[in-house]
Amino acid sequence: MSAYRPIRPLPEQLINQIAAGEVVERPASVVKELVENSLDAGADRIDVDLETGGKRLIRIRDNGQGIPREQLALALSRHATSKIGSLDELERVGSLGFRGEALPSIASVSRLRLTSRVRADEHAWQVETDGDEVPPEPAPAAHPEGTTVEVRDLFFNTPGRRKFLKADRTELGHIQELIRRLALARFDVSIHVRHNDKPGLQVAAARDQDAAEERLARLLGRGFVEQSLRVDVEAAGLALRGWVALPTFSRTTADLQYLVVNGRVVRDRMASHAIRRAYQDVLYKDRYPAYVLYMDVDPGQVDVNVHPAKHEVRFRDGRLIYDFLFRHLRQALESVRPEAPGGAAAPGAPPSSADRELPRSGAAAPPPRASSAPAPRQDGFGFGVREAQALYGATGTPDVREAGMASAGAASNEAEGVDDGAAVEVPGDQGPPLGYALAQIHGVFILAQNADGVVLVDMHAAHERIVYERMKQQLAAQGVSAQPLLVPVSVAVAPAEAELAERHHDAFSRLGFELDRAGPETVLVRQVPALLRNADAGALVADVLADLRDCDDASRLEARLNHVLGTMACHGSVRANRQLTQAEMNALLRDMENTPNSGQCNHGRPTWTRLAMADLDRLFLRGQ
Ligand SMILES: Nc1ncnc2c1ncn2[C@@H]1O[C@H](COP(=O)(O)OP(=O)(O)OP(=O)(O)O)[C@@H](O)[C@H]1O
Ligand SMILES: [Mg+2]
């Protein structure tokens, strides 16, 4: 037993250093706290100067409201804040800060200089500390309205922490990611970064849709902007805006996922699960969706005080948020299907000159609607899902299908003349979005002509999507219709697969399969889904069981059923090299126009692309 040590209050500086352990992990955390303070102070320009990855110097200057002389010492004291004053205010807090901990924590582990000027004053005031307990009296200084915080030699007095700092490049990388997040959260603020006296990220404030997308492209790359849909919905007291990438822009990691809740970039498992589920039908299992989403929730419904670095929040009604995200994002993704010629780019389409005047994101966006109001916070993203759906309503009338079939018949009557591609006239006004089939190329693609130019369709991918969506609909409307086989087919499978068929007998029969185990390694197929009746039943079942073997356990039933459907659609789809008649090709085009999600196949590959006349002209240098 060691000798008894009396209990003593800790010195103030040590208290702050302990708090710094949670608040200040590395230079990027300092940048986060200081920039958040600038945002809370109403700044619309923030300059970030760094040296050696932020280890030697972090200097943040803003043009916010400033701190008056007599409050400078308080700003550096623990548990002192201007942002809340009561529990009630904490529970509805709208600012990023609220603990009154950041500045004293940072000051306790660095050499800090705080210079600030409020509008009413003639000059600025400055305090400097070296991790001391009591900051000295403010001295006069020169500085425009706003605040500069300079943090030098981070962890100079806590060698244990300093040891854990990484190479400059690594620390700088963390800072850049951090600034990217803040820049995404607040489009109304311009941010200018310098590192070792060289300019780094520079983003101007974005006050309209075009500027917002320019900024987005700068922060996340043009590919994301070009291949994403804009979302803009309000319901149940919640608002959701932003961009979700088309499944064709999926990622191998979850690195491009930003969720901003009430102006705060957060990680939330529940929300990311809801978003992932919205993509479930259109994304291959190891791929991750990319998105930048802004959610506005009544501040009283979000608890921001649940994580030491405020990286997480807790929703009081999580179910509501989950359903809201899932439902609206799935709707947005389902709306991706071919639309009228002259609309925005098809997924995977090269940018055409006609498209250049259109918003770059949004596979179905009408001409841009300049948002006149300046964009405070994340407002002003304009056009949204509702409008997109209105647009589809206008083009995707139920009659399209029959009209398409009728003319498909007409086309096939003159099939001989069609083969050279000259005889097909796109009738009347615009014609259907995907036009009419001209030919089949190498048994893999359909070449069609629409009012705008030519369309190429990946037959297999398109058909797979259509079968899948149809099966889902059938399933929802009470079971898949099944087709009994005249003679049951016996399939040799692995014992585990035979067991799977046995165990999930009911689930399979709900999907139209009648599978009976006929031995340790044999399954008898008595019935298959009517939609897949042309497939080789034995091969189909063998494939499905093999596919299901590893996604069997954890996934929930619904997810599993969907997966089975997707798998079956894959296996039953038109195989490459199958010769389709003109009528079949046209029917496929019409089906695509009427099928949700038909812009991409079940694995997120694009199903079709388009070359407008202007693109063709450009290819051949016509009119130049
Ligand atoms: N850049 C700034 N401009 C104007 N006032 C500032 C600035 N930075 C800090 N302050 C003032 O100093 C106070 C203390 O800042 P500090 O970051 O320590 O705490 P906080 O922001 O209130 O809470 P948190 O610890 O959650 O960040 C703030 O409440 C604010 O009034
Ligand atoms: Mg703060």
TrEMBL record:
Pfam families: DNA_mis_repair, HATPase_c_3, MutL_C
Gene Ontology molecular function terms on file: ATP binding; ATP hydrolysis activity; ATP-dependent DNA damage sensor activity; mismatched DNA binding
Region (Disordered): 337-379
Biological-process GO terms, alphabetical: mismatch repair
Residues in MutL C-terminal dimerisation domain copies: 437-580
Domain DNA mismatch repair protein S5: 216-334
GO cellular component: mismatch repair complex
Domain of life: Bacteria
InterPro entries: DNA_mismatch_repair_CS, DNA_mismatch_repair_MutL, DNA_mismatch_S5_2-like, HATPase_C_sf, MutL/Mlh/PMS, MutL/Mlh/Pms-like, MutL_C, MutL_C_dimsub
Record keywords, A-Z: DNA damage, DNA repair
Compositionally biased intervals (Low complexity): 340-353, 360-377
PROSITE patterns (UniProt xref): DNA_MISMATCH_REPAIR_1 (PS00058)
Record has DNA damage as a keyword: yes
Keyword DNA repair on entry: yes
PANTHER family to which the protein is assigned, alphabetical: DNA MISMATCH REPAIR PROTEIN MLH, PMS, MUTL, DNA MISMATCH REPAIR PROTEIN MLH1
Role of this protein: This protein is involved in the repair of mismatches in DNA. It is required for dam-dependent methyl-directed DNA mismatch repair. May act as a 'molecular matchmaker', a protein that promotes the formation of a stable complex between two or more DNA-binding proteins in an ATP-dependent manner without itself being part of a final effector complex.
Family: Belongs to the DNA mismatch repair MutL/HexB family.
Protein known as: DNA mismatch repair protein MutL
Species whose genome carries this gene: Aquisalimonas asiatica
Gene: mutL
